Amino acid sequence: MAHTPPTILILGAGYGGLQAARSLDEAFRRRLQPPALVLVDQRPFHQLITQLHEVAAGTLEAGQAMVPLEGILEGRRIEFALGRVRRIDVQERQVVLDTRQVSYDYLVMALGSETELFGIPGLAEHAFRLRWLDEARHLRAHLARLVRQVSVERDPERRKVLPQVVVGGGGYTGVELIAELADSLRAAMGRLAQTQGAPQEPFSLTLVEAGPEIMAGFRRQLVEEARRQLERKGVAILTNTGIQSVAPEVAHLSTGASLQAGTIVWTGGIRGNPLIESCGLATGPRGRALVNAYLQSVSDPRVYVIGDSAFATDPATGVPLAPSAQLAMKQGQHVARNLHRLLLGLEPRPFVPGHLATIVSLGTDSAIADLERLVFYGRSARILKHLAVIRYLYGLGGVRLALRHAPEVLEAVPVIGSPPGRLAA
Ligand SMILES: Cc1cc2nc3c(=O)[nH]c(=O)nc-3n(C[C@H](O)[C@H](O)[C@H](O)COP(=O)(O)OP(=O)(O)OC[C@H]3O[C@@H](n4cnc5c(N)ncnc54)[C@H](O)[C@@H]3O)c2cc1C
Asked: Which residues does ligand 1 sit against, CB inside 6 Å?
């Protein structure tokens, strides 16, 4: 009787899922009876989430943060199923999409995360978020409107409130966003002043962080440099200060003070995709799946969970691993290798994260980079960040895709660079 190859179903074509699918395809390339690989996503494109702060600030076109999956998967033995996952039945090994139903032998869950609101009153209604491309576009459209409004507003009180921006959460996302906004809003107001001939009310930006320092978990030297760069751009930083509630155009703080602002953005944390909890897998803090050393759900060894949806710890230190695109990709690659080993009858290997290089952008002209033995900052780190995106795109879709980003890199080179900021004004 003919033996039916197993089906490996990968949910989510983000950083982790796409990497897992591509690595699985490569691992089984030369085998006569490879497993059936099915990749599911609700969108026909891969989102460059690491660039969303640029989309929101108007320094990157939204189209450049969308990579069509068709091109990436061309020539690969991966079936793409477009659809939104509605339900996952781990007992029956079935996933229900809004378009069809798919059965699996092994499941790789890479469904990312959502913004964690911590039950803070008013946050969901009155604050912007930055986790998906649509949210970045929404914020960008609001800011473009605001820039125009600020320039024509006659009421002196409104003229003070509208250009205030409050970002809650001083982690990776909050820091990258506020630095990018400082540059793009300054540039937009500068253009307005030129065209309208009158001085414009400058935007004023405040970063609010509940912990004792911004960028928790980063090296001291880099945190200090990030602070210096933000302050140089005019960003006020409030630490040991939580946002307690939000009402229209006002954030009430744990210190008893309130900040009135035309724009309030919340980037204070993430929680696992709600499908993780709803399908009954064991979860750790903030709805992220508990996984073992092989990245299998502790509830079901046929289910692997990677990326933001997984709560994984560093086996060397026991410390939870900070969610990042880098980590998601490494996990995707590792799970693919282990599934390959499993289907060959070999023992799986535990996941060892190793050092994860980090580059945090600080606006259009600066960044900080931690490459383990090498720590540096400034414009060279910013160029490195652009190059990292180009390298990623090259890996996904070759030269043609990588070239889509090349103009950005040229802009970042001092002699060629043009002033940043493309928010409509
Ligand atoms: C503004 C910003 C800047 C960042 N910068 C960096 C950086 O510079 N470096 C870095 O390493 N990390 C960065 N991060 C973090 C990084 O983007 C995430 O950690 C990473 O995207 C997680 O990858 P993932 O594969 O778990 O999920 P994602 O990349 O989010 O992918 C999840 C996928 O699942 C799909 N999906 C979700 N729900 C469903 C459903 N119900 N049905 C079908 N499909 C679904 C989504 O469409 C998506 O394609 C940044 C994050 C933000 C928000």
From this structure: 12-17, 40-43, 47, 49-50, 52-53, 84-85, 110-112, 130-131, 172-173, 176, 273, 275, 307-309, 323-326, 328
pTM for this predicted structure: 0.94
Between the CA of 12 and the centroid of ligand 1 the distance, in Å, is 9
Q: Which of 184, 47, 27, 19 is nearest to 108 (CA)?
A: 19
Separation of 237 CA from ligand 1 center, angstroms? Answer: 26
Sorted by sequence, the CB contacts under 8 Å of residue 130 that are 6+ apart come out as 52, 53, 56, 115, 136, 139, 173, 177, 265, 267
Q: Which fold would CATH assign to domain 7-42+83-113+271-355? A: FAD/NAD(P)-binding domain (3.50.50)
User: DSSP code of 80?
Assistant: E
Which of helix, strand or coil describes residue 279? Answer: coil
Strand partners, 8: 37, 106
pLDDT, one tens digit per residue, over 368-384 is 999 888 898 999 999 99
Number of H helices, E strands in the chain: 12, 26
- Per DSSP bridges, beta strands 367-370 and 375-378 are antiparallel
CATH number for 123-268+360-412 (one of 3.40.50.510, 3.40.640.10, 3.50.50.100, 3.30.365.10): it is: 3.50.50.100
What are φ and ψ of residue 190, in 5° steps?
A: -60, -40
Angle among Cα 301, 131, 302 to the nearest 5 degrees reads 5
Q: What is the pLDDT of residue 201?
A: 75
Q: How far is the CA of 392 from the centre of ligand 1 (A)?
A: 15
Position 258: which residue type? Answer: S
Q: What is Dmax (Cα atoms) for the chain?
A: 82
Q: At 199, is the pLDDT very low, low, confident or very high (cuts 50, 70, 90)?
A: low
Helix (H) / strand (E) element for 289: namely strand 289-290
Q: b/e string for 230-257 if b means 16 or more Cβ within 10 A?
A: beebebebbeebbbbebeebbbbbeeee
CATH 3.50.50.100, the chain: domain bounds = 7-42+83-113+271-355, 123-268+360-412
